[in-house]
Amino acid sequence: MDDAQRLLLKELPKIDEILALLEKNDDAATLPRSLLVDACRHAVDGMRREIFDSAGVMDKRPGVDRAVAMAEERIRSLREPSIRRVINATGILLHTNLGRAPLCREALEEIVSISRGYSNLEFDLSTGRRGLRYDHVSEILRVLTGAEEAIVVNNNAAAVLLVLNSLSFGKEAIVSRGELIEIGGEFRIPEVMEKSGALLREVGSTNRTHLYDYENAIDPETTGMILKVHTSNFRTVGFTGEVEPAVLVELGRRHGIPLMNDLGSGCLLDLGRFGLGREPTVQDAVKSGADVITFSGDKLLGGPQAGIILGRRPVMEKIRKNPLNRALRIDKLTLGALEATLAQYLFSKNPEDHIPVLRFMTEPVDSVHHRAEELFRRLAGIGDSRFSFTTGPDVSFAGGGSLPTQEFPTRVVTVQAGHLTAHEMERRLRRGDPPVIGRIQDEKVVLDARALADDEVDIIERVFRHIAAG
Ligand SMILES: *Cc1c(COP(=O)(O)O)cnc(C)c1O
After folding, report:
1. What pLDDT was estimated at residue 26?
2. In this structure, how many other beta carbons lie within 10 angstroms of the beta carbon of residue 461?
3. For residue 307, which atom of ligand 1 is closest to its CA?
4. Which of ligand 1's atoms lies nearest the C-alpha of 158?
5. Which of 95, 160, 163, 183 to mutate to test ligand 1, by most ligand atoms within 8 A of the CB atom?
6. According to DSSP H, which parts of 80-210 are helical?
7. Cα 264 from Cα 307, distance rounded (Å)
8. Nearest to 399, CA basis, from 425, 428, 360
9. Across the strands, what pairs with 188?
10. Cys-Cys link to 228, which of 261, 273, 358, 420 (CB 3.0-4.6 A)?
11. 416-419 LR contacts (CB < 8 Å, sep 24+)
12. Which is the closest atom of ligand 1 to the Cα of 296?
């Protein structure tokens, strides 16, 4: 540290001095003193760091006025919610980093209604006794899927962990080498298995696994279960082979070993009806006779984050009694949202009209085209010659570890700004209020219209006007 820096450090204001000025501000005066003191300390720490980082030359003196401004900025940034709504213009319909599935209106209403007051979460209204939380969705899941029993937990990773721990602790779970998948966010099937206490028994090869591979691995002493994992986020093509779940069920039955089928995305609707690639449905999995089936609530199902476990009575009893269940349990808001989402499948002839993710996936491209044209018209209408917009065809993807090869034809609006690079343009949209998240393609920012709600066209226009004015 040199003399200039030492002198600057001496200029740093005292906390009390900053506080006295800060409290003159009407808004700050209403806030708890502890928050104001934190903000003042934060300001002084920030200025001290600036002095250390400087070579003793600073544009702004580290005086009390600057400290007050920094303290006010600190309060503003703490007040701004950290998790907030964003506009998903990426064209990835189930974007895990953007919160996966938006909820249907009925699910939102349920969340508000349940959380405003008390609820019968674990209270049986007919008997006045203690109830089970998953009973609120088990009947509807039974009707929808044909399963005997249902349990729901925090997410599908938790479901996989719980089932493996309940049925295969200290025992071997036989799984194909072609199905030892990584889901993303560092979730890998082999690692979860290890944490569950199940012993991994890999069989077959990456591209082909045969029935005899499973059969040869079965040992009545050491085998806990057969595990089938739907490779939901990638496809193997070419010289490949896997064993169908129904065949593995049959094999398991012969040896008295349960089969678990981790479906991942958990689709309840036959997507083939909409000209989309056929994804095995939950109903198919139940029909195949699997002892346990697990899937996510917030992938193709289009509901809240949850892990759904369906299965046959004897194994489900073991899972229900596992103390780990308590640590992984679903909360009441999620449960309410899940019930409301499942009700769309049960009571609507066209659940794809009500569940946002399914609506985005099944919307005809002509209708997406209208939305893109509207967005284009509004943005061009801002009349700022520094920006140029074009519209054109492109493709969206399901994302979220679902339908990896399915392309959804879409329309996009492409933005170029004469005075900004594509990265700077993307950054300004991302820092909008609300943030608009697009993607960069060929040095241009692309806004995909497929996953936009109608009112989001207005919002994007507003964010652009703000950027143009700023
Ligand atoms: C996504 C996925 C999981 C994890 O589900 P989460 O709900 O994200 O916890 C597990 N298994 C498979 C096959 C998946 O696709």
Report:
1. 85
2. 17
3. 7
4. 9
5. 183
6. 105-116, 135-145, 156-168, 189-196
7. 9
8. 360
9. 182
10. 261
11. 416/387, 416/388, 416/389, 416/444, 416/445, 417/386, 417/387, 417/388, 418/385, 418/386, 418/387, 418/388, 419/386
12. 7
From the CA of 181, give the closest atom in ligand 1. Answer: 13
Report which residue type is found at 113. S
Task: Return the bridge partners of 226, or none.
Answer: 174, 259
**Could you tell me which residues come within 8 angstroms of residue 313 by beta carbon, excluding any fewer than 6 positions away?**
148, 149
Cβ-count burial of 231 within 10 angstroms (0-12 exposed, 13-18 middle, 19+ buried)? Answer: middle
396 versus 181: which is more confidently predicted? 396
The length of the chain is: 470
Ligand 1 center from residue 364 Cα (angstroms) = 28
- Other beta carbons less than 10 A from residue 399's beta carbon: 23
Residue with tokens 């609507």: 348
Question: Could you give the domains of the chain?
Answer: 3-79 (no CATH), 87-96+360-468 (3.90.1150.180), 105-350 (3.40.640.10)
Token pair of 442 as six digits? 């060929």
Question: CA-to-CA distance for 228 and 264, rounded, in angstroms?
Answer: 11
| Sequence-distant contacts of 420-424: CB under 8 A, at least 24 apart | none
Distance between CA atoms of 350 and 318, rounded to whole angstroms?
A: 36
pTM: 0.93
Say how far apart CA 445 and CA 177 lie, in whole Å.
40
CA–CA separation, 313 and 302 (whole Å): 27
Residues paired with 223 in a beta bridge: 172
How far does the centroid of ligand 1 lie from the alpha carbon of residue 295, in Å? 7
Q: How confident is the model at residue 92 (pLDDT cuts 50, 70, 90)?
A: very high
Residue 9 burial (CB < 10 Å; 0-12/13-18/19+)? middle
**Tally of CB atoms within 10 A around 367:** 11
The set of protein residues with a Cβ atom below 6 angstroms from ligand 1 is 155-157, 160, 183, 187, 229-230, 232-233, 262, 264-265, 296, 307, 401
pLDDT at 185 over 90: no
- The model's confidence at residue 59, banded by pLDDT at 50, 70 and 90, is confident
User: Token pair for residue 35?
Assistant: 């928050």
Say how far apart CA 203 and CA 210 lie, in whole Å.
9
